[in-house]
Amino acid sequence: MRAEGERVVAETADAWTLLLRGSLSNKGGVTTYSIGAEEYNLLGTGRQFGFGYEREVERSSRSVFYADPNFFGPHMAFRLDAADLSDGRQLRAALGRPFYALDVPWALDGAVLLSDFDTRLYAGGEESTVWKKQERDLLLQGGRLLSRDLDAVVRLVGSVQWNDVELRAGGVGSPPPPEHSNRTFLFLSAGIARIGSGWITRRQVDQIDRDEDFNLAPSSRAEVGLSLPVGQAEYAGRALLSGSMGTPLPSGFALATATVSTRMDGGVQNARLQAGARAYVLRGAWTFVGNVSTLVGWNLDPENQIALDGETGVRAYRLHAVEGDRRLVGNVEARVHLVSEIFQLVSLGLAAFGDSGWSWGEPDRYWHLADAGVGLRIGITRASKNSLVRIDVARAIRPDPLGRTGWLLSFSSGQAF
Q1: Contact 180, 203 (CB under 8 A)
Q2: How far is residue 13's CA from residue 199's CA, in Å, rounded to a whole number?
Q3: Which of 52, 190, 224, 316 is 20 to 30 A removed from 415 (C-alpha atoms)?
Q4: Domain coordinates in residue numbering, the chain
């Protein structure tokens, strides 16, 4: 939409609601693919249905989903996801009324998750341990609008969650530690959430030939919970604190996010700090991006590791190149838009980038990885989903634990960060 004198010109374009899905990607030297179909306006009712086959990094799956945004009435959403995995199965069902707008007075929804599959641990760039993981989760959560002004809304939020995790030996490596092989909690949680509203619209940011909306207003959430020793549930506490904000810059803008969470169960357990900041400078056909992110863990649950590899920001390195309990990644990228809407189907751009990352902690201890490369960006202008294809070739500057350097090709939908 744009102004031309006394006129307002609105440009519209068709978008496909039936997607014949066929994706192929390579991240960190591992090729994954999927094939299937998704309909996002089934018979004009707004219902969604899809099915597909996916070859993922650690398993293959056959899946189906159904979603109805007005199941029992307006805004009463229902979704069912089911997957038959090569190493197990997964089922998730959710029903509820979300906060579909800022001034909605209340929300309430529930979800159930049943899953059983292999979880893998890595060391020195290679698989070291396989465990069987079974998880059952029941969640009821809701919220109430407390106040609203032009800049933000404040909500009271709460939840009841029953979570049961069982780890069993999987035939590779040592069995899970007995003291952490079974975890059951019944958490009652409450907190406050502030959702700011300060939106800007920019073009040629992370997509090609598309307008994108970004919220620069501060938002935050604080929540505490207590697990009661009912039945097999353990006595424990948990806490979560998160926030995000943005700011305008000369010829651009910046965004920052941070989340810290922990479980208190005989001390601090599975504590995580995740933070990131990103800055964009927009100059005509050029977009310059700088990104820094970190993920730090303390006393992580035994099935959790923090990887530094081609999927987490250093594109010239293979998956699970380094594993630890904390990482820091920095990226710079220059993107240029070349051609718009070839045959009204695709737009083209190029990129040059550099990545650097650090990892600490067991099992691989300290490592520093770095790379540089170039890439092609393809914008699919009529797609309603996966509308950007990224093809990158990067050269590793520093060796990984297996001594590997050289070039690596990666391709996927969406930007790398």
Answers
A1: no
A2: 23
A3: 52
A4: 13-82, 98-272, 305-417
